[in-house]
Amino acid sequence: MKSNDLQKKKYHIFGVIFQAVCLSANIAVLLFLGAIIVDVFVKGWPTLTSSLILNFPSRVASQAGLLSALVGTFYMMLLTALIAIPFGVGAAIYLEEYARNTWFVRLIKLNILNLAGIPSIIYGMLGLTIFVRYANLERSLLAGACTMAILVLPIITIAAQEALRAVPQSFRLSGYGIGMTRWQVIRYQVFPMAASGMITGVILALSRAIGESAPLILVGALTFVSFLPASPMDSFTVLSIQIYNWVGYPQKEFHAIAGSGIIVLLILLVLLNLGAIVMRSHFQKKLKGVLK
């Protein structure tokens, strides 16, 4: 009995130590993150003006703006979503609802998990080879969107798969019990319950894409664009590229407006994540009303 009590006490001490280490690690990360955010706001807030949002880039810091980068980011995210969401959600539905549990399907799922962890620069090299050179899309907005779609496609697929797995099997069986086809069960029983999780995954994937610069540099995003893209085949720039360009300038004035650009990018990320929370809450309330 004494040995058992000593062992339990030992495990309890180890558990407390492990919790303290994990808590310390979280606090350290939050402190570093807070310090970076405070530094960015201190340097960038004074130059965050309406002219910065409405002006095109310029070689003069006082006249430089983010207009072309903001519009390019909007078009980039729109095209990326239009390409990646149907393929990602469709792949998840097929793998979870239609495909049999064979070795080949398991291999595909494993590869999707591996693709989600590949560095983004690899996707940039892939986009340069396939879309810019072989597909002759040149260094256009469409080539960049296709590259970013490939980047976020595994994340969207994994999130959609997890959302579909979270739907209880009883909902599928109840649909089959009243004579529904498999597609009707997916459309009317499974998909509404999984929609909130899918939307959250999609928005989080797009939140990652909006801050990526390495793939777009390889695909050919320009660092200085003084016009707005009129078609998917036009040249483009995005916020992350514009910030990267300004940080490389030796003048401190450009470093300040780069901080302002980071603030704008952070605001967009917060709005995207807030949108995910609001839409998830909406679908959950709607689902609860249907279940009642």
Q: Can you describe what's shown?
A:
This protein has 292 residues and is an all-alpha fold. It has two domains: 2-47; 51-291, Orthogonal Bundle (MetI-like fold). It contains eleven helices and no strands. It has helices at residues 2-44, 50-54, 67-98, 103-115, 120-134, 141-165, 169-177, 182-210, 214-219, 239-247, 252-291. Helix 1 (2-44) crosses helix 11 and helix 3 packs across helix 10. The N and C termini lie far apart (52 Å).
Short description:
The protein has two domains: 2-47; 51-291, Orthogonal Bundle (MetI-like fold), CATH 1.10.3720. The chain is 77% helix and 0% strand. The chain is built from eleven helices and no strands.
CATH class membership of the largest domain: Mainly Alpha
The CATH topology of the largest domain is given as: MetI-like fold
Measured on Cα atoms, how large is the radius of gyration?
Answer: 24 Å
- Return the average pLDDT rounded to an integer: 84
Approximate helicity band: over 70%
What is the number of independent domains? 2
CATH architecture of the largest domain: Orthogonal Bundle
List the keywords:
292 residues, MetI-like fold, mainly alpha, globular, 2 domains, 77% helix
Lay out the secondary structure.
Blueprint: H1 2-44, H2 50-54, H3 67-98, H4 103-115, H5 120-134, H6 141-165, H7 169-177, H8 182-210, H9 214-219, H10 239-247, H11 252-291
